[in-house]
User: Which sequence fits this backbone?
């Protein structure tokens, strides 16, 4: 009997091959980073969250989740605290672009034609765009013109009415959410054992000038490493975020991708 895992790497190659060879099974690629997330959370938050969204959505669209990218582009001071903080471990832009381009082309070689990049680390954004563009261009040169890629970051599916519910005291903006209410609530809902809310540092949202300086000025980043306070985070808020983001991503992929249930795969989360 075929293995029913939604994680591509957990399948045997014949089961994987049967699922993907006709190109109708969506491949979801989570992208994260190894990046400090304050005193209260581990450093792979940006990997765990998009991987979980990919797992949930793959179960709904009969897709497969590729192994996540566990390193990402360099943390930027005004949206991730900065690459100078111990623990944060990043790739050069060209390395990330080349690695993602290679992976997309490899999956295409297996027959896959429908892709979704599920991003969990803001700084990856334009490097994902570049990798997708190069992969599509090179695949066209090889005569493969039917590859489609949806690129998204999960927080963009949080609509205004949810923001009002989650931030009754005012929304600081996604840029300074790093290690704040959004990520901490999601982690409390999914991995409470990895969160130490008693160690969270309460501070006002970070304020930056309208320019960047390199090398960074460490004093611009709050000493905790978070850019806004996680104190108002809760498991309940995390459950709300999980639902709106998973539903939104699922609908987007159903609308944009041509996927058909595979005979050898049964839609089921692991
Ligand atoms: Zn993060
Ligand atoms: Mn990040």
Assistant:
């Amino acid at each position: 009997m075929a293995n029913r895992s939604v994680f591509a790497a957990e399948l045997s190659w014949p089961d994987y091959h049967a699922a993907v060879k006709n190109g109708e099974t969506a491949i979801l690629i989570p992208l994260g980073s190894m990046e400090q997330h304050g005193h209260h959370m581990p450093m792979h938050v940006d990997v765990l969250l998009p991987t979980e969204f990919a797992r949930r959505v793959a179960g709904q669209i009969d897709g497969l989740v590729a192994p996540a990218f566990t390193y990402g582009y360099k943390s930027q001071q005004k949206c991730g605290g900065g690459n100078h903080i111990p623990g944060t471990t990043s790739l050069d832009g060209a390395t990330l672009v080349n690695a993602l381009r290679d992976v997309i082309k490899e999956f295409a070689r297996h027959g896959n034609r429908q892709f979704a990049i599920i991003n969990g680390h803001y700084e990856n954004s334009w490097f994902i765009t570049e990798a997708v563009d190069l992969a599509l261009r090179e695949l066209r040169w090889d005569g493969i013109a039917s590859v489609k890629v949806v690129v998204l970051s999960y927080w963009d599916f949080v609509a205004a009415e949810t923001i009002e519910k989650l931030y009754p005291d005012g929304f600081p903006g996604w840029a300074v959410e790093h290690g704040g209410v959004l990520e901490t609530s999601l982690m409390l809902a999914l991995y409470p054992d990895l969160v130490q809310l008693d160690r969270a540092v309460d501070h006002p949202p970070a304020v930056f000038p309208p320019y960047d300086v390199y090398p960074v000025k460490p004093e611009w980043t709050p000493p905790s490493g978070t850019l806004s306070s996680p104190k108002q985070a809760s498991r309940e808020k995390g459950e709300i975020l999980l639902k709106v983001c998973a539903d939104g991503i699922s609908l987007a992929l159903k609308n944009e991708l041509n996927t058909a249930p595979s005979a050898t795969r049964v839609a089921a989360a692991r």
Q: What stands out?
A: Strands lie at 27-31, 64-65, 114-119, 148-153. Helices lie at 13-20, 45-61, 77-80, 93-109, 125-141, 160-166, 181-190, 235-256.
